[in-house]
Design goal:
Elements: E1 5-8, E2 12-17, E3 36-40, H1 42-52, E4 57-60, H2 67-78, E5 82-83, E6 96-101, E7 107-112, E8 128-132, H3 141-150, E9 158-162, H4 173-184, E10 189-193, H5 194-200, H6 206-214, E11 221-225, E12 231-235, E13 239-242, H7 255-269, H8 283-301, H9 311-318
Length: 319
Amino acid sequence: MTAPVLVIGEALVDIVGTGGRSNGSGSGRNGRHGTKATPGGSPANVAVGLARLGLPTELVTRFGTDPYGDQLGAHLFGNGVQLAPGSVDPHFRTSTATATLDGDGVASYQFDITWEPPALSLSRGCPAVHTGSIATVLEPGAEAIRRFLGSLAEQPVTVTLDPNARPTITPDAESTWAAVRGLAASADLVKLSDEDCEFLRPGATPDEIAAELLAVDRTRCVVITRGGEGAIGISRTARIEVAAPAIKVVDTVGAGDSFMSALIAGLHTRGLLGAVRLEGLDEETLSDVVDYAVKAAAITCTRHGADPPTAAEHKSTWG
């Protein structure tokens, strides 16, 4: 691969607090007050995860040149992520997400974000385009993404989507699900979490949700993560379940994004990106790719913040 994977979406700073881990005196897990600001944003996390797994990656995003923006830029550059022209804008205020961790290390978020990407274009030879999260629902940027994905129908590129539903941004589940289905119609692979499913399609089973998304011509695979229970992969010809390894969870920040980047990387190593658009994704391959992604997410859960593994870390941990 020479042309980079293209990732589109928000880059922001996670301000992580520990209010949910209170011991009754208002102190966090280490007995101290305070927060920590770390680079984040689901698409940005996916881009970093891809780069750490060895895939050339370009991120189309937008953030400022304020202190938070400088922190983001240093993080992305330091991890080998290319930034598309216009992604750094001195007139733009860098967005933030305040994350609170509960007693199990599971994060909930409050956002201070605006989203308007620079011009979107596809480089020759680009094997995959990934997008998702707030960038696909927050206007005016969401409309730009919808138009861009629609323009890729005849292009030799694999499109992946992770809606990563945020009820605080889009509280109307019915309209959000309609938006997700519209975007999914332009995607070859859709990844959801069990929390996404519960919010977007309450009462529906994973198989029912997958069937809805696979009903369109383009979508060929749906993967649903289930936290500590692993993940389910459903294609037109296969259905697999992968268990998660037993780990000690520090927090879940960025785990789903690590899963997504490893899923794309696993498909790449098996030659399923680009013009083939997942053609030939059989049961054994789907199981292997989802297992690789589950284990990448597990590593992220064993450390603080959105800290996806490198390919070497993945191999040394799981073999």
